[in-house]
Amino acid sequence: MKQGNTTKFRILETANKLFYQQGFHATSIANLVDETGLSKGNITYHFKNKQEILEGIVQKRLTDIDETLSQWDKEISSPVEKLIRFCEMLIDEQDNLEQYGCPMGTIMGEFSKNQPTLYQISIPMFKRFKTWLTEQFESLNFTPEKASENALELLSRTQGIAVITHVFMDKSFLKKEVFKLKNELSEKYGTFNSKLK
Amino acid sequence: MKQGNTTKFRILETANKLFYQQGFHATSIANLVDETGLSKGNITYHFKNKQEILEGIVQKRLTDIDETLSQWDKEISSPVEKLIRFCEMLIDEQDNLEQYGCPMGTIMGEFSKNQPTLYQISIPMFKRFKTWLTEQFESLNFTPEKASENALELLSRTQGIAVITHVFMDKSFLKKEVFKLKNELSEKYGTFNSKLK
DNA sequence: GTCTATACGCAGATAGAC
DNA sequence: GTCTATCTGCGTATAGAC
To answer: In angstroms, rounded to a whole number, what is the distance separating the alpha carbons of residues B170 and B162?
Structure first.
């Protein structure tokens, strides 16, 4: 499935980057032509329209997310530590978040209002995280309903941090908030090891 | 300054609504023509381009925000209660937030990436709230730095709630989170009256 | 598979009559 | 101030040659 160097894959990678950095609407096929060096015709040979490119990107992102999450599942046993690892993702991505916002949040914002189809395509990215976070809270003995609520709340917290960091272009805010959020998690749900980090 | 029924004002109101509900890029001049019943030429007579319309809208929103905030200043004396009133704005707007997201957050998301000029125009809306919230925390005897940090954190929380509510189209999440947020504020900073609400 | 060339529609902006 | 008509550029999508 992973065709590292095929033309199709190159287009997908480039589009993924540009859609994130410039937005979906603001990125034209011409931009993809410039960035890939391919011809316009070649691109439409591989994807019949822009929506198909987006679908390919979402597929790619979904497998990336799945890989990341199962990697964390492998490396980390404690649910609390997993939640904390999730928060640390913001730190890992702080430069991108500051400049371009959350890759999921910003693309959803573009589609949710006026592109129901594209919106539907993008929803699963959010759901992946929601589901995984819910699992962690269930491991902490919350009821399914409460676990799901906590998962959404944590997602909400990180989305808020991403928005403010991006709007005010202020990375230091992100660092402070993630630090506080991690402490809050470890205080609330145990594991004081991570409090000292 | 407030020309209630002039053509210019009508255009502004319509554009404000459509930009919010559909997004700036997705709204065409033709849409404004349909919605206002005016001619294309008439619209461009009052605003020479789309950007000018946006500038007008932001001005309108800024005065609206100012009015709301000074209204709250008049009605409410306790800083904590003011913070709580701010959170309750989410409840007041729950239907819109669910359907269209935060009016500031979503429009900023559209501009921050690829429209530096429009981004600059929109920033003051966020700043208004940040400044006002900071004032409240200063009244609670926080240092200016800490007050500003708390203000951003509260803004961040509400933005996160708005994003998740919109993405998952889930108003009940908003209600739960605002309830918790209000309690958190009153517990942290006093005023247990509001805890009972 | 990859390219060039072209068609088509739409949005934004302009000109000019009333 | 308001309208109709037109121009121009751009973005997507298509057709066809190599």
So the answer is: 10
**Verdict on whether the full-model pTM lies above 0.85:** yes
In angstroms, how far is C18 C1' from B38 CA?
16
**A195 in any annotated domain:** no
User: How does DSSP classify residue B195?
Assistant: G
Length of chain A: 197
Last residue of some domain: B32, B48, B64? B48
DSSP codes of every residue in B67-88: HHHHHHHHH---HHHHHHHHHH
**Sequential pLDDT tens for chain B (197 residues):** 456 679 999 999 999 999 999 999 999 999 999 999 999 999 999 999 999 999 999 999 999 999 999 999 999 999 999 999 999 999 999 999 999 999 999 999 999 998 999 999 999 999 999 999 999 999 999 999 999 999 999 999 999 999 999 999 999 999 999 999 999 999 999 865 444 44
Domain tally, chain B:
2
Domain span at residue B148 reads: 51-196
A43 located within any domain: yes
Asked if B120 and B174 sit in the same domain, the reply is yes
* Chain B residues 149-178 within an 8 A CB cutoff of chain A: 149, 152-153, 155-161, 163-164, 166-168, 170, 173, 176-177
3-class state of residue A20 by DSSP: helix
Q: Give the CA B124 to C1' D5 distance in Å.
A: 40
Instruction: Give B3 to chain A, closest Cα distance, Å.
Output: 30
